[in-house]
Amino acid sequence: MPIRQLTDTMINQIAAGEVIERPASVVKELVENALDAGAGRIEVTTAGGGLNLIRVLDDGGGIAEDELPLAVARHCTSKLSDDIHDIRSLGFRGEALPSIGAVARLVIRSRVRGAGSGSEIRVEGGVLNGPQPAPANPGTMVEVRDLFFATPARLKFMKGERAETSAVTDMVKRIAVAFPQVRFTLTSGDRTRLDLPAEAPGPNGMLARLARVLGDEFAENALAVEAEREGVKLSARISIPSFSRANALHQYAYVNGRPVRDRQVAAAIRAAYADVLPRDRHAVAALFLTLDPALVDVNVHPAKADVRFRDPGLVRGLIIGAIRQSLAEAGIRPATSAASELVEAFRPGAAAGRPAGPGHGAPASWPRPFAGPGFDPARSPHRPLVDGFAEPGQAAFFAAAEPSADARAAAPDVPAELLRAPLGAARAQVHENYIVAQTADSLVIVDQHAAHERLVYEALKTAIHARPLPAQLLLLPEIVDMAEDDADRLARHADTLRHFGLGLERFGPGAVAVRETPAMLGKTDAAALVRDLADEIAESDTADTLKERLDRIAATMACHGSVRSGRRLKAEEMNALLRQMEATPGSATCNHGRPTYIELKLADIERLFGRR
Question: What pLDDT score does 458 carry?
């Protein structure tokens, strides 16, 4: 087949296949254009999941009439200087509008600030019409109808209307988080899905925007992270370990204000929470990385969702170190959602699924005690028990029953300094597993086994990583063949691996000789271990696989060596456990990510009893 030049229409359709994957991709490109134009208000309207209609209206700088034809021509942009490495805007390729116009019916109506009138241009399946005068407010309106009508085969790969609308909503949320001072509204059909008002500049405005996008509970359970290393600045809001989600959809990452889905950033977040979250739970986080544009390549993919850092190890280390330091400095802190769930569990009818009635969750048919004037407790059928029991026969019954709580810690003279401590003073042990403690304004319930398991685990980790680990010498060195690059990477990390008890060295081209393995691992497959390490070093320039294996052994040892459920503790032991928890970072969750304690504020208890 002879070589021929593709037509402009076909070139634009091919570009559209790279840039425009689904309606959410169109929304992303148009909203980014509005932000680059300096918009302070952006309105997005969709119909049919975006396949029938996408309209983006902004109050930005607008497009002059003589520039409208260039706006829909390929590789025409106002956002790129002569230096391709100095990209400071969200868009720069000049492919979005012509790509959209090649596969849809596109209308752009714009008016430059200060101009007397606006203008309009239309593109339908790559065919240009205009520009021509048109009434318009200052700013730009871009309307996209019948997306992919020119490439109907693409429509077969679209999901349902609900799924596409959800994708559009998520895209607008991710962009809106990075620009809290811009108002965003999203309307789908006759329903307003998002209405995010402009927030004040500064950290408080950012937190307010995050609360609107991720929920008020996130703001209540978030930690601030600020760190900088070698010109890379990290600013973030991260959830405490006891506040997590079942997937990573609530993790937002930004590089110089650009929302990205970077595997290295996601892996760094996962590694930072490795010790405090189970594998099936994920932190909620919003990370903002700021660095010199020359140190990051945003031109990896036409959709600009992927980035490539010049020094990925630096970025990974910064994220992991900053998050772990913030978690450690935060001390012990439970999730506020746990207390809410506990209150709901205690509400009458909650366990049976009965609908809550008026007042404080009690069914409307429940009798309400009368406490008005003339109330005599002695004559009331609900009178308090006298001498401990109301009927003579009940005394013997209760005397024979085994007490469910160890009240030895319920001394009336609790030192005031213990009540001021974060976890308070131990008052009782319930069901031989749960410590009930009292603070100045709350009730604390501690799972003694889970709490002690975390304490033992942290002590074991400190002992393991504070000094080189014992190694077991192999009778015969094991020779592992691998790619030359993998062997070089392992050799560069030989000192780090030796600290963890793994001794290896180069053995000719494309091979390493393993002479020692960590004694804690016992009998292990040395070849599989070093190959896993080589793969991880190639991906993230770290050798954390070996460290994670050792930490898992420490976690297992901690589980079997901690205070077991069913063991009665003295008051002194319970208080000592509470004080150790307060001094140990990450002790709000156990090794498996479960909460070690729940705090119920006195105000919540009073509401539960109708006192508030």
Answer: 79
Reported as a pLDDT band with limits 50, 70 and 90, residue 113 is confident
Contact between residue 24 and residue 168 where contact means Cβ atoms under 8 Å apart = yes
End-to-end CA distance of the chain: 83
Q: Report whether 304 contacts 259 (CB < 8 A).
A: no
For the beta carbon of residue 133, count every other beta carbon within 10 angstroms.
Answer: 11
Angle at 331 between CA 329 and CA 336, to 5 degrees: 120
Residues 425-448: tens digit of each pLDDT: 888 888 888 999 998 888 899 988
Token readout for 494 is 């030989």
> Which of these, 144, 117, 145, lies nearest to 131 by C-alpha position?
117
Question: In a 3-state reduction of DSSP, which class is residue 40?
Answer: coil
How far is C-alpha 118 from the geometric centre of its chain's CA atoms? 43
Mean pLDDT for the stretch of residues 335-350: 64
pLDDT tens profile 267-277: 889 888 887 88
With tokens 């937002």, the residue in question is 252
Assess whether pLDDT exceeds 60 at residue 11: yes
CA angle 153/156/158 to nearest 5° reads: 120
pLDDT of residue 538: 77
Write down the pLDDT at residue 236.
92
- b/e string for 10-24 if b means 16 or more Cβ within 10 A? ebbbebbeebbbbbb
This prediction's pTM: 0.69
CA 544 to chain centre: 22
Which tokens is 1 given?
């087949």
User: What are the structural domains of the chain?
Assistant: 8-196 (3.30.565.10), 203-329 (3.30.230.10), 403-612 (3.30.1370.100)
Q: Measured between alpha carbons, how far is residue 323 from residues 141, 217, 316, 330 in Å? A: 41, 19, 11, 11
- Helical (H) or strand (E) element with 142: strand 139-145
- What's the CA gap between 388 and 179, in Å, rounded? 64
**Residue-level pLDDT at 44:** 93
Which residue type is seen at 350?
Answer: A
In 3-state terms, what secondary structure has residue 48?
A: helix
User: Residue 55's pLDDT is what?
Assistant: 93
